[in-house]
Amino acid sequence: MVKLLQLLCIVGLLSCNSAQEQKKEKTHQTLYFTSNANDVYSFDIPSRKIKWHYPAFNTEVNDELCYFTIQDGIMTKSYQDGTILQFDISTGEVVNKYQDKEDETQSYYGYDFEDVAFLQFYQYPQMFQGNAIFANSHGEIKSVNMQTKKKNWVYIHNWVLFSSPKILNGVVYVNINHAVLALDAKTGKQLYRSELEEESLNEIIIDNGFIYVSGERSVSCYNPKLELQWIFKNDTENYFNDNLLITEKSVFFGGKTLYSADKKSGKLNWKTEIYDNDQLLSIAQSNKDIIVMTREKMLKIDKNGKMISEKKNTEEPIGQLFRCNDWYYYLTLNGNLYRMDSNLQKEEIFHKDININPNHRVDNTYFFAD
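Given the sequence above, the corresponding structure tokens read:
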């Protein structure tokens, strides 16, 4: 009996070790990336080679970043001129195309967008049951079937929309600059609405069933019915940018000052004045610590707000700091795609000659890995 128990323990330990090894070996193999010039890249991470590249088009109009989503082997990418393309992620082949235009019912509402160019700003779009859900500058939130090109519904109001809808449990959430709306993803019917205390052009972030919105001086948290859970208000002249990192217990945000607030209550954990005249670009998680990218340097900060290490940037970065396989990827103004380890010790060029738009330095970049 004792020997049997010993044998079972050994088998159990071997199984655990095997599971841990399998978990450890599960790493991302492909990195997808779009620059602020709207070129789309797919990289094989182990070899660092381009698997496919789809260049930007209509660059006089498509001169600012739009994002993409990946679902069921298809990348859906928006462009500022209203084009939505779907790519086979294995080959880069375009498999679907939709051209957005002003809805024919727009005139019924009497809204005046005569002086507003018809564009899509910073859309992903979101995908729901084969339908692309997105917003445009003429106040329209739409659901369109990408196969049939049939419009399922449109929700129209009189504000230019600067951020993309997000979807949670069949509900579309979108920031309409002065309020957050919740719409039924199947019908477009409004379910809930909550007014913002300050105007915000930033996209909402959904994490663990809660909705977060950041403005220039505040961060708000709502439940799925858009009932306000807490609001953090800035007590200084520092302005927040659109960076918002949400971890298991904390929310991080800031501009020249980095703030950490408790995720459940919104109460301040700490704030760190570390930027002087520098500008925060992006925040990424590193286990229990965080890594902050500014124009001048990289900073590693622990959970208590203490700076662990810092590194001066080799080249000036733009956009997003993206964690993948415990490397941190970022693009520079020279068109070099760098990656750096979590200790800020090892840095290398992952790929050169990325097409960028130097006239839009404040624009984000966007990454995804699988």
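The two ends are 46 Å apart (CA to CA). Try to locate this feature in the token string yourself.
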